[in-house]
Write a structure and sequence with these properties.
single chain; 365 residues; alpha/beta; Rossmann fold; five-stranded parallel beta sheet; 5 strands; elongated; DUF4062 domain-containing protein
Length: 365
């Protein structure tokens, strides 16, 4: 059975009966500290805040209520615990209290100080400001005698959202077998595949499979691409860079995107990003790739070796497109940083063929 926790100051006893009836009508179990339905451990080190955190962890839904007073533990401990645990929750505020807050909030706009207000009023304004302005949460007003009706409506809305997410989860599972055969994916399947790819909570292997399918079908929205490039999952981020040419099939590529990816590589502690990026940018568009790579930090010897050899592989195209000067500048940067004599001679010979040599020996060669 669903466990619904009522959180708030002692004056929530005014809505307790409506809370219990409404939750019971939903087939749930109402939890509230006033009737003793709180998790607790009595010991020499007992702590109300720890008890509240423990109860939030075990509740399925939290209902935070402001009648007139502000509960210290509710807004100092329980809201944070619910947010960190990812618990679904509601914030309900009595209409008259909320209207009072709106008047005071307008009257005491920063930099005006709230110190002129008595403590309870000051806590009310600062708490609702934190809820709405800092945390960007929505406080739903309820009128006198309508708490149960408001709670029923908002719980129904939560259940509707939960059912929608269950539907989305089922749809994702249904397309996973199809990801290995991208040609079979419909437009709706591709939308679901994109949702899988960008979801940081999704299974990593599923995200990679979705990413490969999207690359094969050249089907990824621009916002999703930027999201994937910023992924906290290293394997997904690397694969996004590796498949960048297919994920961004527009030609010529967007210079802003290339600049963004190079900046990402410069800021990343993962050397695998830049090493994958070098051949990808040159393959997408040689001229724009060379221009973008001019901004790449090449202090790492692995970068310089890969960059020099990748540029050499495009030697004919460099001559054909008249990029000798730009490529020579990149090669000279490689020589000034690198210390691997097995490939330096090839780099200098390439400079000679471009008509910009002989290059001065690099220090420490």
């Amino acid at each position: 059975m669903i466990r619904v926790m009522l959180c708030g100051a002692a004056d929530t006893r005014r809505v307790q009966d409506e809370f219990v009836r409404t939750v019971a009508d939903f087939g749930g179990v109402p939890w509230h500290f006033l009737n003793g339905t709180m998790n607790y451990i009595n010991s020499a080190s007992s702590d109300w805040e720890e008890n509240s955190r423990a109860t939030v962890q075990e509740a399925d839904v939290c209902v935070f209520v402001i009648v007139e007073e502000i509960g210290h533990i509710t807004w100092g401990t329980e809201v944070t615990a619910a947010l960190l645990a990812g618990k679904p929750f509601l914030v309900l505020c009595q209409q008259s209290t909320y209207e009072r807050y709106l008047v005071l909030n307008d009257e005491f706009r920063p930099p005006a100080s709230l110190d002129l207000l008595e403590e309870g009023t000051r806590n009310l304004v600062s708490t609702l400001r934190e809820i709405e302005q800092d945390r960007r949460l929505t406080a739903v007003p309820f009128s006198h005698g309508k708490f149960g009706e408001t709670l029923r409506r908002e719980l129904s809305r939560l259940f509707d959202i939960a059912l929608g997410q269950m539907e989305e989860r089922n749809r994702r599972k249904s397309i996973r077998p199809l990801l290995s055969d991208p040609a079979r994916l419909s437009a709706a399947d591709l939308t679901a595949a994109q949702a899988i790819a960008v979801d940081e909570w999704e299974d990593k292997q599923a995200r990679k499979a979705a990413l490969r399918a999207l690359a094969a079908r050249r089907s990824l929205e621009e916002d999703a691409l930027y999201s994937l490039l910023a992924s906290g999952e290293q394997g997904v981020q690397r694969m996004t860079v590796e498949l960048l040419g297919e994920l961004h099939p527009v030609r010529p590529p967007d210079p802003a995107l290339l600049e963004h990816v190079v900046a990402l590589a410069n800021d990343s502690d993962d050397v695998g990003i830049a090493r994958r990026l070098i051949p990808v940018l040159l393959a997408m568009d040689l001229s724009k790739g060379v221009e973008a790579l001019a901004q790449l930090n090449v202090e790492d010897s692995g970068y310089t070796r890969r960059l020099a050899l990748a540029l050499e592989r495009h030697e004919d195209a460099v001559a054909r497109e008249g990029l000798q000067a730009a490529v020579a500048a990149l090669l000279k940067r490689c020589l000034s940083q690198a210390s691997e004599p097995d490939w330096k001679s090839r780099c200098r010979a390439y400079l000679d063929r471009l008509g910009f040599g002989p290059a001065a020996p690099a220090t420490g060669a």
